[in-house]
Amino acid sequence: MPTPADMLPPGPDTLMRRIAALERQMRELMASRRAESTTFGSGQLTVKTPGGTGLITTGQDSVSGRYQVAMRRDDGTVGLALSAQGSGEDDTAAILTRSGQRVLSDDAHADDWLGRPWIPVPMHAAVSFTAGAWTTTHTGLWLAQHRVLHLQAMLSAPVASTAQMRFTGSVGTDGAVSTLGPIVTVSGGDSYIQYRATAADLGVVEYGDYITIRLEAQRTAGAGTCSAVCIGVWGSEAYTETET
Question: What gap in Å lies between CA 214 and CA 177, rounded to an integer?
């Protein structure tokens, strides 16, 4: 509010009065609540350390053009991120290593499912086999947390013997048993299964469902002792939309 002194013509103390007014306004501004509700539509907002490292960044990435939130370590590497990993992917929340590898995240293609880490399914040996009918050699219980199940196994048959191998699972809400992936046949040698069971194989599976996974084998010719080895079963993130 103007004072009588402000109405006087400019004089020798005019500059001093203006400086004093500016100081008063600065004190009031510093004491007031600022940025209580702030919105911006482009660019970035960054919180930096005294050394200049951006610890928290939110807004539009200058390279990709996508909107994201990132929290960085003191060395500048991203530790936590909420952003899209690639074109056409949904935003993911992720914890990253210093080299940028995702160690924990949701799935960019399958909503409500875990992306990383991949979680192994313990598969326990049941029996060796010579039977001419399907026999369970390994079995395990999968508590579904990923949308995809990655399966690997090896089948061996001695000379003059033939054997087959397959993965099966008690899939879906009705507990029906389905074959997961191909049936592998080998005669006098070794063969492998490496298969990703996706939504098309697994059917109606909800997060946290209990699903029994089995590796089954049978000898179809010859008299030798055959063996099936479960190399590993893992829950996996979806690589593409077609796997969901």
Answer: 10
Strand partners, 149: 197, 235
Spatial contact of 46 and 54, defined as CB atoms under 8 Å apart: yes
pLDDT (tens digit per residue) in 215-232:
999 999 999 999 999 999
Question: Residue 219, SS3?
Answer: strand
Domain boundary, last residue among 106, 129, 150? 106
In a domain, 150, yes or no: yes
Structure-block tokens of residue 89? 């992917």
pTM (whole model) above 0.85: no
Place of tokens 């991120």: 81
DSSP per-residue string spanning 51-100:
TS-EEEEEEE-TTT--EEEEEE-TTS-EEEEEEESSTTPPEEEEEE-TTS
Q: Are 243 and 109 in contact (CB under 8 A)?
A: yes
